[in-house]
Amino acid sequence: AKETSSCSYIIFDNKNSLSNDSHVAIESDLINAIRRNEFELFYQPRIDILSGKIIGAEGLIRWRHPEKGLIYPDLFIPTAERTGLIVPIGYWVIQQAGEDIQRLQASGLEIKRLSINLSFRQFQDSYLCRTIQRLIEKYAIDTSILEFELTESALFNNELHVREGIEELHKLGINFSLDDFGTGYSSFSLLQKLPISSLKIDRSFVSGIHNNNPDDREIVKALIRLALSLNKEIIAEGVETAQQLSFLASFGCHQAQGYLYSKPVPFAEFKDLLQHGYQL
Ligand code: C2E
Ligand code: CA
Ligand code: CA
Ligand code: CA
């Protein structure tokens, strides 16, 4: 009953709930998933390129559907965003990440960063900061470890509104990173003003390194240079090959994330990777 009451301010889009497209999650299914606690947070390691050590992870949501099996976020996050269900789902993610940070610390495993994705839509919830503050207190979440990933479009869409939210959350000690860097329209002056500590180069450019795409290689170089000159941490996502890694390393990219090291894995497996390392 608690979940229902905390979701009561959400306005549902009834027209689309009648859609019968089996490839796209529908709201009634998603509401059930929230009630039945069917979500899981997987983790993909983030590696410090110089030392080769795992410094943390990105949390990525999955939906363990009782009949359909494991459902990837691309199939239900858009519906969750459209209907506002991303708000309660987003709180679940934060709470789960907080619990998992605690579990790692209890096992004596050190991580520097654990990031989760925050939708632009979540800033439309006027209780965002208060709710996150309550979660932080309830689960004693170490905010210096917590990082919220925001996409360029989220950041530069509704400037003032989102900006105020970011400032407020930053005061709680939360770090921010810019996701899918290079795909949107970053205003460099805004990038400087906002408390964003790291930039994540979008996978599309990283895959271009491998295909010897000269444009993508130049873009990656430029993005790394830009991040370094702005004094931001730079992370390459979607690193799949040793060739991509050495290219990134040669231009001073700090961190890498991708199938080369590990796919996103359940918490227990991530813990294992932290304890025993990954296999290249
Ligand atoms: P994203 O934030 O850009 O996450 C990176 C995606 O790239 C993940 O897909 C990850 O599994 C995938 N990936 C990582 N390394 C590689 C690689 O080397 N090669 C390839 N081909 N793919 C790689 P995933 O987990 O399916 O997530 C898709 C998107 O769903 C995410 O993109 C993010 O935008 C969204 N998402 C995931 N979890 C959440 C969440 O908790 N909240 C919100 N709002 N969005 C989420
Ligand atoms: Ca992300
Ligand atoms: Ca990304
Ligand atoms: Ca992406």
From TrEMBL:
Domain EAL residues, every copy: 23-278
Identification of the protein by name: EAL domain-containing protein
Native source species: Amphritea atlantica
